[in-house]
Amino acid sequence: MASCSICLESTTEASGYHKQCLRRLFGTDTLPKITLELSKLYSLAASKMAGKMSISGAQEKVSLALTDDNTNLEVVASGGQYILKPETSRFSSIPQNEQLTMRLAGLVGIETPPFGLIQLKDDTTAYIIKRFDRLDDGTKLPVEDFCQLAEKRLSDKYDGSAELCVKVLRKYASEPLIEIQKLFRLLLFCWWSENGDMHLKNFSLIIGEDGIRRLSPAYDLVCTKLVIPDDTLAMPIGGRKSKLRRDRWLNFADYCGIPQRAAERQIAQQIEALQPALELVSASHLPNEKKNEYDGFITDNTNVLRETSQ
Questions:
Q1: pLDDT level of residue 51 (50, 70, 90 thresholds)
Q2: 136 pLDDT band (50/70/90 cuts)?
C-alpha cells in the first residue's frame, strides 16, 4: 500500500495524498498543479524574483504562492506562502530525506509547519513547506534567527554552541524556561537523527500575534549523514559533537536549568520513538539503501543514549 506524500501513513487515495493532509498544507482537498520542471525552474525563478532567490547550503529555495482559486502553485517575487526545494544534483534524495526527518521530529513533539512532497512536471520530486511567518491574510510575523540575535556575521553561523543558544533564549524569549526545554528536545532530536547542519541560522525566534517571543517551528531538518558520511553536529553540546550519552544530555539539561525528571522524560521519549521511527523510515520515499542507513543511524544513537559516559 502506498504512503501519503505528506504524512507517510498508508493511503488508498489515487492521488497519493490524504485529503485531510492536503487541507492542512494547501487548504484544499485536491493537490494544486505545478506546471514547472526542474530544468526550467531556476531560470524562471531568477527572472521573476530578480536575484531574490535564496540559496542555503546545497539547496536552492524558490518562493511559491497559490493562485486565488487554490488550483495552481506559481513562482512569486514576494508574498510567497510556500518554499519549494527541488532535487539537487550534488546530493541525492534530499527532498525525501527532509520530509522524513521533519516527520520524525513530530514523533517527539517538535512543532513543524505543514510540509510534504510534490512532483514537478518532469516527475522530479520536490519538498514543499508552508511558511510559518505568514498569516492567512499575508501579514508577515517578525522573525530573527540566532545568528542575528547573537550579533554574529552570516559567515560565522557555524561559530556557535548549544550553550550559546540557551543564552540567546534566556536573553530574548518571553518565557525562557519553556523555550529552553523546546530547544533541548530539538537538539536531542538533531543529534539522534544525525543532522549536522543545525547552525545558528537554523534556529529562530518568532513574535506571534499574541506578542509572545518564542522558538519558531522547526525547519531545515535533514539527516546530513546520509549524504556526508563523516558529518557531525554543527554546534557542540557540552564541548562534544558525537557520542552524546545519557549523562552528557543530563549535564546539558542541568546547564539549561531543566529539572532532571523533565530531562529524563525527554530522553525516554526519544528512546521510545525508535520503533515508530523505523516504521516511518520504511514508509518513506527514500531509496531502500538509504532507508537501511537511516535505520542504522537512529538505532545506534538510541543505544548510545541508553549508555553512560566511560
A1: very low
A2: confident
Nearest to 109 by CA among 255, 249, 272, 308: 272
Rounded Cα–Cα distance for residues 84 and 128 (Å):
5
Nearest to 225 by CA among 289, 161, 293, 280: 293
Burial class of 45 by CB neighbour count within 10 A (0 to 12, 13 to 18, 19+): buried
75 DSSP β-pair partners: 64
What grid cell was written down for 158?
A: 557555524
Helix ranges, 4-93 (H): 19-26, 38-49
Distance (Å, whole) CA 91 – CA 43: 21
**Residue 46: its pLDDT value, please?**
55
Return the amino acid letter for 7. Answer: C
- The DSSP line for 282-295 is HHSSS-HHHHHHHH
Residue 30 CB contacts under 8 Å (≥ 6 apart), including other chains: 15, 22, 71
What residue has cell string 554546534? 235
Closest C-alpha to 94, from 236, 292, 287, 242: 287
What count of Cα atoms within 13 Å lies in the side-chain half-sphere of residue 114? 12
Distance CA 19, CA 118 (A): 14
Q: How many helices (H) and strands (E) does the chain have?
A: 10, 9
Q: Is 250 exposed, middle or buried (0-12, 13-18, 19+ CB in 10 A)?
A: middle
The answer to whether 285 touches 3, Cβ cutoff 8 Å, is yes
How many C-beta neighbours within 10 Å does residue 51 have?
A: 6
Q: How far apart are CA 81 and CA 130, in angstroms?
A: 6
Half-sphere exposure of 238 (CA within 13 A, CB side): 20
Read off the pLDDT of residues 147-164 as tens digits, 9 standing for 90 and up. Answer: 999 999 999 999 999 999
